[in-house]
């Protein structure tokens, strides 16, 4: 038994310190205001305080910590992207994830499982090879594997897909992992709070005040704040924030749905994604199968669920895993994905001085949590775009200089 | 499954429709920035949006005003109201 | 079946039919109509399962599909809910999540360690040092999960039905039946659904012995069953509410997807447990569970009972126990007796001890309940120390209700806490939604009937489009039926708040202490409500606890969001029948008869290549010794086209006729090149880009008449091409009509030097070079069928695309194959075509281009008339991109006789250690006798390099030599020249 557990047993009282502060009034001024208390916002606050000594920071969250896409995603972490800039960025994230539990002294259940992206067509297989080659070039462990190798790792999968679009091969990414999403946000929040950052839940930003092209403050439903630096890290709510400043972006909001099965004894150790069948699945440490598909087909600023989603998912899933027909889906939910035309994020400075954007996270925001927090903190502290996120600048669209991540997207979790 | 009102044959399940997104009209005499804004940027805040939908079985395009926060359809838009003529775009020398 | 009672008037079991089954290796029997749990209880088996975390003994809690501690598994199924799954002959069941056997669970020691495992313990341990986490994780994973699955199970899929109705009433209890009848009487088409196998709801188990209810029950049931406007669906549960009143009703045989105009929720309430030490022992159950056992299954839940109550219903339950011959040792009331009604007086009249202002402080027993400690209750706890003990094997909890309001939340309705009723009640309902009965706070039978009627009238008015002034409070009870704090702290804990997840009261308190003092955060940290019952018996108490800790009201505390599903839904039912549409060309059967290897292209099945009899002469040149049969067949097909004749089925191409005065204008907008200047009878290459200038499709446009064009598109883009053309017609208000001929027309490409000669004998079209030049398009007949012939050059030989109605296609195909024999005709497939076009340097959109490739990068600036054409889709983007071109598609070749590791498509070009491009196409060219390909290469390298390095499998670097394209017949003589010149 780990000594921590012994310690719990020997205490007569539950004397664990608070993760997050109790609710208290807003101050009139902060050096930096972060809008959005999800993983990204908390990570940014954490690195601002830890690495740049900036602690007069308020994180404003309209709901509760980690209640947006942080708590709604399917927790997959990987770096097998298509473009060198994407690979570099996500690889930095994976490395940060690997040390996060130590860094926080909090178990985020970071669990390396291996990640198969199945190819059912020639062209999918070509894309897999492209990704594998780019990955290997950057020192990332990815390779195209054949049916035999897949069968060895996932023997219970029907590679023939019941006779339609059989699996031809896969991109195998050994570092593919899952983590406990909430714990990532909580760990960052606790670390930020312990270093002096204020976290205000149930605090909704209603306006961002500017003078000329400079940020001077933020209005909230709990009062006004003056500040010169505001970072928006609100994923699906990004259009509401950018609208306040008249900043136009290519982001569109599409619901992304997911579901879990009833818990069963763990049998699935790997993460399996099929772009052609639009499904992905892993098994959580609670024994639930965590499953998802691609984003909904039309814009919607809502987290409603649809039955078509689970029906389609169930139908496609049985092509790969016939035995799942005897399992049951327990719960479904949705998040709001902020999708960009080139399936890459939008990060860094904006036309408004002092307003920084971290958005366009689509379906891949969770895996970028540490690196986005770190690079955005650096960018804000230095008022200079961090080199890792330079390709993701908002102005790339005006320059027709898009990121070529489209090939890896479809269902890229 | 959500229902959409196809102007030709009435309410049909949304899976029969394709979604194009908000109505966009190519600007005439656009400078680079205006053109890039047209190509990439969107009126993306929640609210009532005019959007093009396509009903696959009938091959019918139509335009709906829809509230993207509540998913309620507000009304049908006459395509003539948003018609445009091909811009004459001279390539700058 | 020693615990079976004499026949009960409303029982569900059929005593004529006995059913045998096995559980944990022992034989049991029950009656048809029994649930697994009731049959086991009837035989005295009270221990039904072990808890998730501590492996504590557990029994019946609700008998209402919430008993997730009575989960069984068999060789055929897992996570079987004992409380609601019917017994069937020959079942062989085991308990889920036990280590060893249910009776001797080797993991039951974990309960002893519970003090070492406080709330969220796993976040605070096992991660240091990092390298040991996989070790701990393995142990944790072994303990995780409930039932086992068998990965050898085959897929079962249940067909689905679609249903439609005016009014859907969910729940066939008193209020639901009343609502259904009211709406049906008013002429509505009503569907009444209930998750139980029989209608009646609590009318049948809670009011089973109430004389006044008997007449009402009989009347309601008879009318509901016989009403012409009511369709009754028993044994189906509503899985969730979805947009536009779409409610999947899940039954044993599959799902009925019901679309309603109005939905009346008569879903009732879910009885809530009291929280006290050892409240999870087998023998401790909800009062309604005991009533269900008695009335539905005639099962005696115990011999000697104590009833804990905070409402009138507890006294009703006590009377029901007495009626069933069960001794009632005491009724323990959380409040004073004077708050209670006539049922309490009846209990009192029977001299049953009633302990007022008291609560259960602790239940006693090891594997089952043996007694309770009753303490004086001050409204918050039993800390005075004044206790009394009672021996008993049954303890009923009747302390309150939580609404089955999950679907109301899903539909956006507003609910709030009623401080008088101590229950969450609906406040404002969304359009088309209604709530009645206990869900809405109507508790007496009269109230429930009246409330059902009211809801139905509201629904009928809305159905007719009338405005209504909905008053949900009309028939609500003034008395509370829930207690606001049925939660008793105990220094030794084990007072479970969520028995799915083994959460004790202190776990929630400690979670809040650590800052998780928001209802959602508390849920996520403690896992309250995350188990298979999804908080049905833990969410309400969780809210009460958090409100108490934070000093906030219940409304301020809020509730977690109720997501679908209401009960878990089998994947087999959701998947439905497997439907994978497949499109076949008119010549499909011929392909099958002639050795075709098919490939999927979207929904289409296309010939990839054919494996016919070998042709010795042709195979030598390709070096057949080293290459497999597939490769050999493909190369032979290539050679047939180059040297004689080939025929490929291209029926999958998009084929669209564009007609009307604005037809040319439309095509000028959609395609980069000018289509308005095509001469009648001629065709032109058609390249389409999107607004951002990225290549999305290519094909050809041919002019049939001044106002009539014929357009082809790639197979994968066919539907999109038609859609885009339709869209532009609407956007610009053009006078154009489209005919999508993709499915009704077949097409084949007859290619090779002998093509003209073969055709000339079969068609009335003048094929002479002068009258039918390259890129020409002619109409005429072929084998008697009207055809459209197009001189195309994709494969780089003299060739004719033959388009005709699907009806005649097979005959034409067979005739060509027959008549072409002397010229060595071969059918060729997609693979050969890929090589043929590669030899000509033609791109395949989507292979040689990616999601960002523009025409300049693809070396197609000739197809982008920026100067001469005032507008086409994407023009301004291309004008910008022209100067910013950063990469370029180039041709390359490998040395003749190259024997090393061959590069593959998407292998990278490396220059100075950096990625400088990738191979997009590569193949062995039989015509050139060497391997050729296309590569997308960074500029200026693409223009300057004389040698490029490709990293191949295994990491070796292979040199490729850039070269101009086309690789084959660079001046195009073979596709334009007269037959005699190239023969």
TrEMBL record, chain A:
The keyword Repeat does not apply. Coiled coil: none annotated. GO terms for cellular component: cytoplasm. Pfam families: DAO (PF01266). The keyword Oxidoreductase applies. One of its GO terms (molecular function) is oxidoreductase activity. Keywords: Oxidoreductase. Residues 32-76 form the Rhodanese domain. InterPro entries: FAD-dep_OxRdtase, FAD/NAD-bd_sf, Rhodanese-like_dom. This is N-methylglutamate dehydrogenase subunit A. It comes from Marinobacterium mangrovicola.
TrEMBL record, chain B:
One of its GO terms (molecular function) is sarcosine oxidase activity. GO terms for biological process: tetrahydrofolate metabolic process. Gene3D superfamilies: Folate-binding superfamily. It holds the Pfam family SoxD. This is N-methylglutamate dehydrogenase subunit B. It comes from Marinobacterium mangrovicola.
Automatic annotation (TrEMBL), chain C:
SUPFAM superfamilies: Aminomethyltransferase beta-barrel domain, FAD/NAD(P)-binding domain, Folate-binding domain. Residues 887-969 form the Aminomethyltransferase C-terminal domain. The keyword Transferase applies. InterPro entries: 2Fe-2S-bd_N (IPR042204), FAD/NAD-bd_sf (IPR036188), FAD/NAD-binding_dom (IPR023753), GcvT/YgfZ/DmdA (IPR028896), GcvT/YgfZ_C (IPR029043), GcvT_C (IPR013977), GCVT_N (IPR006222), SoxA_A3 (IPR041117). Residues 492-577 form the SoxA A3 domain. Keywords: Aminotransferase, Oxidoreductase, Transferase. Residues 587-867 form the GCVT N-terminal domain. GO terms for molecular function: oxidoreductase activity; transaminase activity. It comes from the Bacteria. Residues 166-416 form the FAD/NAD(P)-binding domain. Belongs to the GcvT family. This is N-methylglutamate dehydrogenase subunit C. It comes from Marinobacterium mangrovicola.
């Amino acid at each position: 038994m780990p000594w921590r557990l012994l310690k719990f047993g020997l205490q007569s009282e539950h004397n664990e310190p608070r993760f997050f502060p109790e609710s208290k009034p807003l101050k009139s001024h902060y050096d930096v205001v972060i809008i959005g208390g999800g993983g990204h916002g908390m990570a940014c606050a954490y690195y601002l305080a830890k690495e740049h000594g900036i602690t007069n920071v308020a994180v404003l969250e309209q709901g509760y910590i980690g209640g947006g896409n942080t708590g709604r995603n399917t927790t997959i972490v990987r770096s097998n992207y298509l473009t060198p800039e994407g690979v570099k960025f996500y690889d930095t994230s994976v490395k940060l994830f690997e040390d996060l539990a130590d860094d926080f002294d909090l178990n985020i259940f970071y669990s390396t499982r291996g990640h198969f992206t199945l190819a059912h067509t020639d062209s999918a297989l070509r894309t897999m090879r492209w990704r594998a080659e780019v990955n290997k070039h950057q020192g990332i462990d990815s390779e195209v594997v054949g049916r035999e190798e897949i069968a060895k790792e996932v023997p219970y999968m029907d590679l023939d897909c019941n006779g339609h679009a059989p699996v031809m091969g896969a991109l195998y990414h050994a570092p593919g992992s899952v983590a406990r999403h909430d714990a990532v946000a909580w760990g960052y929040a606790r670390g930020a709070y312990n270093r002096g950052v204020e976290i205000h839940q149930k605090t909704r930003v209603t306006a961002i005040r500017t003078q000329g092209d400079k940020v001077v403050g933020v209005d909230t439903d709990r009062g006004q704040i003056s500040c010169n630096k505001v970072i928006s890290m609100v994923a699906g709510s990004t259009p509401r924030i950018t609208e306040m400043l008249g900043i136009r972006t290519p982001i569109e909001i599409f619901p992304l749905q997911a579901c879990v099965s009833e818990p069963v004894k763990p049998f699935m150790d790997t993460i399996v994604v099929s772009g052609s069948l639009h499904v992905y699945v892993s098994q959580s440490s609670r024994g639930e199968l965590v499953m998802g598909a691609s984003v909904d087909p039309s814009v919607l600023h809502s987290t409603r669920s649809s039955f078509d989603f689970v029906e389609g998912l169930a139908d496609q899933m049985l092509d790969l895993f016939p035995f799942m027909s005897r399992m049951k889906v327990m719960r479904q939910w949705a998040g709001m994905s902020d999708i960009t035309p080139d399936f890459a994020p939008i990060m860094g400075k904006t036309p408004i001085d002092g307003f920084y954007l971290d958005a366009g996270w689509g379906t891949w925001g969770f895996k970028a949590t540490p690196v986005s927090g770190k690079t955005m903190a650096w960018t804000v502290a230095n008022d200079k775009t961090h080199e890792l996120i330079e390709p993701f600048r908002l102005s790339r669209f005006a320059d027709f200089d898009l990121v070529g991540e489209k090939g890896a997207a479809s269902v890229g979790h | 499954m959500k229902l959409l009102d196809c102007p030709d044959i009435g309410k049909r399940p949304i899976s029969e429709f394709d979604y194009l997104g908000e109505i966009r009209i190519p600007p005439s005499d656009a400078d680079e920035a205006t053109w890039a804004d047209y190509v990439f940027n969107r009126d993306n805040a929640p609210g009532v949006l005019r959007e093009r939908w396509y009903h696959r079985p009938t091959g019918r395009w139509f335009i709906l005003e829809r509230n993207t926060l509540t998913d309620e359809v507000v009304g049908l838009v006459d395509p003539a109201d948003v018609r445009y003529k091909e811009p004459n775009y001279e390539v700058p020398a | 079946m020693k615990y079976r009672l004499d026949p009960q008037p409303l029982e569900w079991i059929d005593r004529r039919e006995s059913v045998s089954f096995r559980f944990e290796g022992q034989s049991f029997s029950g009656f048809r109509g029994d649930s697994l749990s009731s049959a086991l209880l009837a035989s005295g088996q009270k221990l039904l399962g072990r808890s998730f975390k501590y492996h504590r003994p557990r029994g019946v809690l609700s008998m209402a599909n919430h008993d997730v501690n009575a989960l069984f598994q068999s060789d055929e199924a897992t996570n079987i809910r004992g409380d609601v799954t019917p017994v069937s002959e020959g079942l062989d069941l085991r308990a889920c999540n036990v280590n060893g056997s249910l009776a001797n669970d080797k993991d039951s020691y974990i309960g002893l360690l519970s003090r070492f495992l406080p709330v969220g313990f796993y976040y605070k341990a096992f991660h240091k040092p990092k390298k040991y986490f996989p070790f701990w994780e393995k142990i944790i994973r072994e303990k995780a999960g409930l039932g086992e699955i068998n990965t050898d199970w085959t897929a079962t899929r249940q067909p689905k039905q679609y249903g439609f109705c005016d009014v859907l009433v969910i729940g066939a209890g008193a209020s639901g039946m009343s609502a259904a009848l009211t709406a049906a009487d008013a002429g509505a088409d009503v569907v009444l659904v209930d998750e139980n196998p029989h209608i009646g709801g609590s009318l049948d188990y809670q009011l089973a012995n109430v004389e006044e209810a008997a007449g009402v029950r009989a009347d309601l049931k008879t009318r509901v069953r016989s009403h012409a406007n009511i369709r009754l669906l028993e044994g189906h549960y509503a899985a969730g509410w979805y947009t536009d009143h779409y409610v999947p009703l899940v039954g044993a045989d599959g799902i009925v997807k019901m679309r309603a105009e109005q939905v009346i929720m008569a879903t009732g309430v879910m009885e809530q447990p009291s929280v006290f030490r050892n409240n999870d022992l087998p023998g401790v159950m909800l009062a309604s569970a005991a009533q269900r056992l008695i009335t539905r299954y005639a099962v005696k839940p115990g011999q000697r009972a104590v009833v804990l109550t905070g409402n009138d219903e507890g006294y009703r339950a006590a009377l029901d126990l007495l009626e069933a011959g069960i001794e009632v040792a005491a009724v323990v009331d959380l409040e004073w007796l004077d708050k209670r009604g006539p049922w309490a007086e009846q209990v009192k009249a029977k001299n049953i001890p009633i302990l007022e202002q008291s609560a259960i402080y602790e239940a006693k027993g090891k594997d089952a309940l043996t007694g309770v400690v009753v303490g004086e209750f001050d409204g918050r706890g039993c800390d005075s120390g004044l206790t009394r003990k009672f021996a008993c094997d049954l303890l009923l909890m009747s302390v309150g209700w939580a609404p089955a309001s999950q679907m109301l939340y899903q539909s956006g309705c507003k609910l709030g806490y009623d401080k008088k009723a101590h229950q969450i009640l609906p406040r404002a309902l969304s359009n088309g939604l209604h709530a009645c009965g206990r869900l809405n706070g109507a508790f007496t039978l009269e109230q429930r009937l009246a409330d059902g009627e009211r809801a139905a009238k509201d629904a009928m008015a809305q159905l007719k489009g009338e405005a209504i002034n909905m008053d949900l409070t009309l028939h609500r009870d003034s008395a509370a039926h829930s207690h606001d704090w049925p939660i008793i702290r105990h220094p030794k804990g084990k007072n479970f708040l969520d028995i799915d997840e083994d959460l004790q009261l202190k776990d929630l308190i400690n979670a809040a202490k650590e800052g998780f003092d928001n209802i959602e955060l508390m849920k996520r940290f403690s896992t309250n409500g995350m188990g298979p019952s999804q908080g049905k018996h833990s969410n309400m108490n969780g809210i009460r606890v958090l409100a108490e800790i934070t000093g906030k009201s219940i409304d301020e505390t809020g509730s977690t969001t109720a997501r679908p599903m209401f009960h878990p839904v089998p994947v087999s039912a959701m998947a439905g029948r497997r439907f994978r549409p497949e499109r076949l060309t008119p010549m499909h059967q011929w392909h099958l008869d002639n050795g075709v290897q098919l490939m999927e292209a979207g929904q289409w099945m296309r010939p990839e290549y054919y494996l016919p009899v070998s042709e010795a002469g042709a195979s030598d040149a390709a070096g057949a010794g080293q290459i497999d049969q597939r490769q050999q067949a493909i190369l032979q097909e290539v050679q047939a086209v180059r040297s004689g004749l080939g025929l490929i089925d291209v029926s999958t191409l998009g084929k669209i006729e564009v007609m009307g005065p604005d037809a040319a204008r439309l095509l000028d907008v959609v395609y980069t090149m000018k289509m308005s200047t095509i001469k009648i009878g001629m065709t032109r290459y058609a390249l389409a880009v999107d607004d951002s200038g990225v290549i999305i499709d290519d094909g050809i446009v041919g002019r049939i008449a001044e106002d009539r064009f014929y357009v082809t598109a790639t197979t994968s883009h066919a539907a999109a091409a038609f859609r885009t053309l339709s869209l532009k017609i609407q956007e610009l208000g053009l006078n154009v009509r489209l005919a999508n001929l993709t499915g009704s027309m077949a097409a084949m490409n007859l290619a090779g030097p002998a093509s003209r000669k073969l055709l000339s004998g079969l068609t009335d079209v003048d094929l002479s070079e002068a009258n039918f030049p390259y890129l020409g398009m002619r109409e005429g007949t072929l084998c008697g069928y009207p055809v459209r012939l197009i001189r195309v050059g994709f494969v780089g030989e003299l060739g004719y695309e033959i388009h005709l109605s699907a009806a005649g296609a097979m005959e034409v195909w067979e005739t060509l194959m027959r008549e072409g024999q002397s010229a060595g005709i071969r059918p060729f497939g997609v693979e050969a075509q890929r090589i043929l076009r590669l030899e000509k340097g033609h791109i395949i959109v989507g292979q040689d281009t990616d999601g960002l490739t523009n025409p300049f990068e693809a070396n197609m600036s000739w197809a982008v008339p920026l100067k001469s054409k005032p507008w086409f889709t994407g023009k301004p983007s291309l004008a910008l991109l022209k100067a910013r071109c950063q990469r370029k598609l180039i041709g390359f070749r490998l040395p003749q006789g190259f024997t090393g590791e061959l590069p593959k498509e998407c292998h990278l070009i490396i220059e100075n250690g950096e990625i400088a491009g990738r191979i997009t196409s590569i193949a062995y060219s039989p015509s050139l006798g060497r391997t050729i390909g296309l590569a997308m290469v960074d500029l200026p390298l693409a223009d300057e390099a004389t040698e490029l390095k490709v990293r191949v499998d295994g990491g070796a670097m292979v040199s490729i030599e850039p070269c101009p394209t086309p690789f084959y017949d660079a001046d195009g003589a073979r596709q334009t020249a007269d037959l005699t010149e190239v023969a």
